[in-house]
């Protein structure tokens, strides 16, 4: 068994899709749109076959929770080397996105940097 894809609701579908294409080499599908429900999505496929479905609709819950809410917390992207983690972290920060922490070696031995995508979703950049 494997996870087929993960879904992510966002406000700005195209800006989020462009972010993952630029920094992680994702290839985006054509946009699907359901006029009746206002649901739209695009699938992002990464080099290893992993997929992320980026979705939006008009009636999204806009409330942001503080602290560490229940549910999925972050997406971890394996970039293949410490140098690539450093490079992508620096580029994302230089382009004006939030860089939360790192690069650093965590207590459990991961080399990681944590950034936010355009919607504020955490991404761990790892080796």
Automatic annotation (TrEMBL):
Q: Which residues form the VOC domain?
A: 2-127
SUPFAM superfamilies from the UniProt entry: Glyoxalase/Bleomycin resistance protein/Dihydroxybiphenyl dioxygenase (SSF54593)
Q: Which residues form a coiled coil?
A: none
Short name of one Pfam family: Glyoxalase
Q: Which PANTHER family match?
A: GLYOXALASE_BLEOMYCIN RESISTANCE PROTEIN_DIOXYGENASE, LYASE, PUTATIVE-RELATED-RELATED
Name listed for the protein in its UniProt record: VOC family protein
User: To which species is this protein native?
Assistant: Candidatus Companilactobacillus pullicola
- Give the lineage: Bacteria, Bacillati, Bacillota, Bacilli, Lactobacillales
